[in-house]
Amino acid sequence: MKAIIPQPSQKPQPPGWQQALSSMVTDPMLLLALLNIEPQTISWEWNKNFPIRVTQSFIQRMKKGDPNDPLLLQVLSCPKESQYSVFYSKDPLRESKHNPVPGLLHKFSNRVLLTFTSSCAIHCRYCFRRHFPYEKNNPGRKGWGQALAYIEKRAEIIEVILSGGDPLMAQDEVLKDFLTELSQIPHVKLLRFHTRLPVVIPERINDSLINVLSRSRFQVTMVYHINHPQEINTEIANGVAQLREQQITVFNQAVLLHRINDDLNCLTRLSLQLYQAGILPYYVNLLDHVAGAEHFYVSREKAKILQRQLRNALPGYLVPKFVQEIPHLPCKMPLDLLT
Ligand SMILES: *Cc1c(COP(=O)(O)O)cnc(C)c1O
Ligand code: SF4
């Protein structure tokens, strides 16, 4: 390893991914202006509770002048978000029941999920955690002790999943310190990240992060979140290649979204392009009934038809598992097992 010694006269520059964070767009008017879309030709609304948030890199992958662009529809707040029926709730997965210590969700016997940070570099309008009480559930460094003590006492826990928010919003130093502490617990063998950050800021996969991950003793898995083939570019593929060099497997989970990816052609191209970028399709999640996201909903019947069609259209290893989370069941449920 070559150490980089900063010259005394130089101010240390924050890494590129942090600069990308500081130039995120949070104003819908600006977003539409960048895309040459007249604000009166599209349905949108300010949303103070869950404001829009999108990186320049992601915006560059949107089609100019297209109000139906599938990437734009994922991030632009619209009036439909404030209209929802009684079937939609703020805690659709009843996660608060499985929340033994702040920041830790333990629903499935051998793995736990930690909400490692409380923010993301993008606000996906359909986000199932958009109402999650992150403030109460963002243990930060002070809360690690409690979460680690919980894991240490339970030898059945073999995997720790860092989620969020987005776990890669944490600085590499913070991740490194956490992994050092976690590696003291011998029964934890697997470490997983659920992240969308390398999709919206591909520079997040840099040498410093690779160093932190490759020096830990864990078998590391990344689960990206990409919903549409148009999100995939060469920079993402380059980052994946760096991870794979370190024997880190990269999977993808998508959410099935009305008007964005709920057709056979789109899902077929998604799987193929993911694979070409070095990523394996893992899950297609049915949307949880989260208040404000009803207009993205795709029925279970339609999802089942799509999965059947995909099985005919793709090699078996490129067909993602279509799953739905049912609050009281012990794993994400394959649609095939649900009526
Ligand atoms: C989704 C989820 C997991 C991971 O499930 P896998 O099927 O292993 O991908 C683990 N814990 C919680 C609380 C989850 O919501
Ligand atoms: S990146 Fe994930 S957690 Fe963050 S807003 Fe999007 S769906 Fe929600």
Question: Would you kindly provide a written description of the structure presented here, covering whatever features stand out?
Answer:
The chain has 339 residues and is an alpha/beta fold. The protein has two domains: 17-82, no CATH class; 95-337, Alpha-Beta Barrel (TIM Barrel). It is 29% helix and 14% strand. It binds pyridoxal-5'-phosphate and iron/sulfur cluster. The site of pyridoxal-5'-phosphate has 8 residues, from strand 1 and strand 2. Pyridoxal-5'-phosphate is lined by residues 105, 107-108, 111, 113, 161, 331-332.
How much of the sequence lies in strands comes to 5-15%
> What CATH architecture label of the largest domain applies?
Alpha-Beta Barrel
Unreliable sequence segments: none
Listing every helix as H and every strand as E from the N terminus to the C terminus, the arrangement reads: HHHHEEHEHEHHEHEHEHEE
Helix proportion: 25-40%
* CATH topology tier name of the largest domain: TIM Barrel
The tally of strands reads 9
Q: How does the helix and strand content classify structurally? A: alpha/beta
How far apart the termini lie comes to 55 Å
Radius of gyration: 20 Å
Comma- or semicolon-separated keywords:
339 residues, alpha/beta, TIM Barrel, 9-stranded mixed beta sheet, binds pyridoxal-5'-phosphate
Secondary-structure map:
Elements (H helix, E strand, L loop, with lengths): L15 H7 L5 H7 L21 H5 L11 H4 L28 E5 L2 E5 L24 H13 L6 E5 L8 H11 L7 E6 L1 H4 L6 H9 L3 E6 L9 H12 L3 E7 L8 H13 L3 E6 L14 H14 L7 E4 L8 E2 L5
Parallel strand pairs: 2-3, 3-4, 4-5, 5-6, 6-7, 7-8
Antiparallel strand pairs: 1-2, 8-9
The structure holds pyridoxal-5'-phosphate and iron/sulfur cluster.
